[in-house]
Design a protein that fits this description.
Blueprint lengths: L31 H39 L3 E6 L7 E7 L2 E6 L3 E6 L4 E7 L5 E5 L3 H11 L7 E6 L3 E6 L4 E7 L4 E7 L5 E6 L3 E6 L5 E6 L5 E7 L2 E6 L4 E6 L7 E7 L1 H4 L17 E5 L2 E5 L4 E6 L5 E5 L6 E9 L2 E8 L5 E7 L5 E7 L5 E8 L5 E7 L3 E5 L10 E2 L4 H5 L3 E3 L23 H6 L9
Antiparallel strand pairs: 1-28, 1-29, 2-3, 3-4, 4-5, 6-7, 7-8, 8-9, 10-11, 11-12, 12-13, 14-15, 15-16, 16-17, 18-19, 19-20, 20-21, 21-30, 22-23, 23-24, 24-25, 26-27, 27-28
């Protein structure tokens, strides 16, 4: 269903004052039991507000503790060199980093030595998306194609209209699925026998059987290119260049497995092809990351939109100090929301960390040596430290360092005073154009992408915790 009305926007909830209820006066015919029930209900209601206050205090204390744990953190950056064009997507499988690029290749990297382990060549067009099915679904396919049961597989999508399935241990392509459409995004749904959900540059969403590779369903879901697909249990979230977000449920007993639960257009999400004060178009810039009933949206603006997909209410998280900031991707890891931000004026790239579920600002990481970040993935080392990989014009590994470790070139976290003095999470009632006056001067982006290049690419990916 397409909802055409403007939903109520959510803001900060004010806690009402606590009032002591007046004593009940017995009415004629009201027995003592009824009076006691009403008094118990009023007593329970009177305690609900203090409990809400206590919960808020606990969340604030948790956020302060999280910020304190990050204050002395440092990261060491190591480039992974080998691609000859833009890195569009990156995933991690069993501590192996796998990247896809517009140079048509998929590369497997050995992180400890920062060396290329394997080059998966087979696409004739740029690689737009990658994903790895869970081990139990890999075992199902391993039996079908006659490879060892413990084999891990990787899926790659490309502008050549193919989805290819690779055996990681050998680099062999075990299956190729021709989709008849440029593949701009996909995800794997681990329900039943498994499904591959693909999105195209024309807005089409298709469901494919994991076992037979047959097309189960094809839907003209969006008006423009599908730039993000993400699964969460039986739910599938799709986002498109025109700023629309659709939520689907997979019905295992139906021949057409995808059923649309709701659709929110650009008037609700606040994303789409509008232009900012610097003349940059936001078209084709939607990435998403779902968490429960909320979806975090990055759509080429200075804020991260937070959409409650059940109600259509929208809030926003401040991700840059002015309208010159561009949010390219969002990710979640271990109770933290990470948003990438690129400053069109200074050319500086930043990763901002926010606590979940509150969305409170924690810390930032930035360096003049970091190019624009277009894709992101993360995992933990055996010692429990964070390890991230970012992609764009360069592929970079971020290694969290032990305490008191220091070397020239290491990136230390910092606190942005702007985020400390103004609310991070705010209502979306006011237009983001209100802050356009913050930065009106002429500029020359140091690492900006060509607008046509942005509109035709699909390097905005999403990840799910």
């Amino acid at each position: 269903m397409k909802l055409l009305y403007s939903p109520k926007r959510s803001g900060n909830v004010e806690v009402p004052p606590v009032h002591t209820p007046a004593r009940k006066i017995a009415r004629a015919g009201q027995d003592r039991g009824e009076i006691q029930e009403e008094e118990a209900a009023e007593k329970e209601e009177s305690h609900s507000v203090p409990e809400a206050c206590n919960q808020q205090q606990k969340e604030e204390a948790k956020c302060r503790a999280l910020a304190a744990s990050w204050e002395s953190s440092k990261f060491r950056l190591r480039p992974l060199k080998g691609h000859s064009d833009m890195i569009t997507c990156v995933v991690v499988v069993d501590n192996l980093v796998i990247s896809g690029s517009r140079d048509t290749t998929v590369k497997v990297w050995h992180v400890p030595t920062a060396t290329e382990q394997r080059n998966l060549g087979g696409h004739s067009g740029g690689v737009t998306c990658l994903c790895a099915p869970p081990p139990e679904y890999c075992r199902m396919l391993a039996l079908d194609v006659g490879v060892p049961e413990k084999e891990r597989f990787l899926l790659s999508g490309s502008t050549d209209c193919y989805v290819k399935i690779w055996a990681l241990s050998t680099g062999q392509c075990v299956k190729s699925v021709y989709t008849f459409n440029v593949v701009t995004a996909f995800c794997f749904v681990p329900e039943g026998q498994g499904y591959i959900i693909t999105g195209s540059d024309g807005g089409k969403v298709q469901a494919w059987s994991w076992q037979s590779s047959a097309c189960c369903q094809s839907i003209n879901a969006h008006e423009e290119a599908v730039t993000a697909l993400q699964s969460q249990g039986p739910l599938v979230f799709s986002g498109s260049a025109e700023g629309t977000v659709c939520v689907w449920e997979v019905y295992l007993t139906d021949a057409n497995p995808l059923h649309r639960l709701c659709q929110w257009g650009p008037l609700v999400t606040g994303c789409g092809g509008s232009k900012g004060s610097l003349g940059t178009s936001n078209s084709g810039r939607l990435a998403l990351s779902p968490r429960g009933d909320r979806v975090f949206l990055a759509c080429g603006r200075a804020t991260i939109k937070v959409l409650n997909w059940r109600t259509g209410t929208v809030t926003r998280v401040t991700n840059h100090r002015s309208s010159a900031g561009v949010t390219d991707c969002v990710s979640q890891t271990s109770g933290i929301l990470i948003g990438s931000c690129y400053d069109l004026v200074s050319g500086e790239s930043t990763l901002n960390l926010f606590s979940l579920p509150q969305g409170k600002y924690v810390v930032s990481l930035s360096s003049p040596d970091i190019p624009r970040i277009l894709c992101f993935t993360s995992w933990f080392t055996a010692s429990g430290s964070h390890r991230w990989v970012t992609g764009g014009r360069e592929l970079i590994v971020w290694e969290q360092l032990p305490p008191k470790t220091k070397q020239k070139g290491d990136v230390a976290v910092r606190r942005d005073r702007l985020f400390e003095t103004c609310p991070t999470v705010e209502s979306d009632e006011d237009s983001e154009e209100d802050c356009d006056d913050c930065c009106e001067e002429d500029y020359t982006p140091q690492d900006a992408l060509d607008p046509a290049e942005v509109a035709s690419s699909s390097w905005l990916r999403c990840t799910l915790q």
